[in-house]
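Troubleshooting: if your tokenizer reports a length mismatch, compare against these two reference records.
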Amino acid sequence: MNAQTFIKSLEEEVSHHEAVHHPFLKRFATEKLTLKQIQIFGLQHYQLVKIFVNYMTNLLPKIPDKDAVALFRTVFDDEFGQHTIFRSHPALYRHFLKSLGLEDEAWGRVKPLPETSQYIEAHLQQTRDAAFLVGLGIVGPAHEFAIPSMFEYIISGIKANTTLTDDDFEYFTMHIIEDKEHAVIFNKLIARHVETEAGQKQLREGAMLSLAYRKKFWEGLERAVFESA
């Protein structure tokens, strides 16, 4: 299949993947949650938030396209908060954690679940050591394209179980908008390298690998959040 047909097919596959509509997400969106349960979710998920840019910095030097830096600039600018670190994505997420009543040291002292650590280690290793198309599949379709759908569930749970304002959970609402835009940027780059079956196989390998670890991450959170109730 040609590049655009492949990208559309992969996005369709991603959009129906269990990691994107995991039972944990459905429970988080619909069940009654305590503040403690939302805090457990927030602290574990922050471990993924604070490391995401590292995947991109691992990947970027391996991409052969001379304009890759220019293509990625919008994504990096959004991640780092445009012109102020106070609106970087980790900073916005810490504001969310503070709104949940957590002290500054809470996110530095939290013990990652095994699934959280496995997720991070696998993504660092793959974006560093695997073929660049594998890394592109991880960061593009499995993150930028998939996250808006997953965050819809999270936002529903936050709204239903807290009195947080829109500003308090802006991190999540922002990503529903920004990541759709980022997915378009990544697709411009992806389209150049998936005209062959080999390229398509590597790109899909990265996306499916990332989603498999995301599924395990949600499984760990489901245990931690709902068995703690």
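Reference record two:
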Amino acid sequence: MTTTTERTYAYADLPRLMGRMTGDEKHGPAATSTLDALWVLYDRVLRVTPERVDDPARDRFLLSKGHGPMAYYAVLAAKGFLPVDWLDGFGSYDSPLGHHPDRVLVPGAEIGSGSLGHGLPLAVGTALGLRAQGLTDPKVWVLVGDAEMDEGSNHEALAYAGPAGLEQLHTLVIDNASASYSRPGGIATRFEAAGWSASTVDGRDHAALYEAFTAPHPGRPHVVVARVEPKDHAGEPE
């Protein structure tokens, strides 16, 4: 697979790329809350490129917070995974870029997502599968929203992953204060109680994000809680 972009894009280009996606999209805060963390991951951390989307040794990124995927699509386009022109048709009937990503249609997408609480269990399974194949170098990343931590499936997954010592597993929680049942600081504490390494950072600070993403955590899975500005609670959980 060859690169589909005609130029090199930078972080400063992302708002313009996101602006190309118009239409009936009700999850704007879900998209903008993830923008900085996604950029740092794809620009500086993840070992995956358009040429390596089928390489068994690639890092895996799973977007569990699949509603409001405009930032995800913009970053994939900027990094050459999909043509920038696709952004203009976002959400239309014949566009591969739906309001929830489809792994069959979106180059570089590892899972279809949008239903809350699916991504972290799938990431645990992915890490176990890599371990079973003897592939110990690839890292597995999953991005979830803080409201997703209200789902029991996530608590079952994180409770298993810590004692299992899934060092290849990394969870990024975007905390925009939209969870119904959490308390300040409770997300990181919950992971730590299950044996995870945990960092809580400013979700807009690229240097802090990179440091947290690359922190060593031998023998344990790692979670980064990225705090961003609170969302308007009038809508759905994000």
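Descriptive notes for reference record two:
- The beta strands are 60-63, 140-145, 169-175, 197-202, 222-227.
- The helical segments are 14-19, 28-32, 35-45, 70-78, 119-132, 152-164, 186-193, 206-213.
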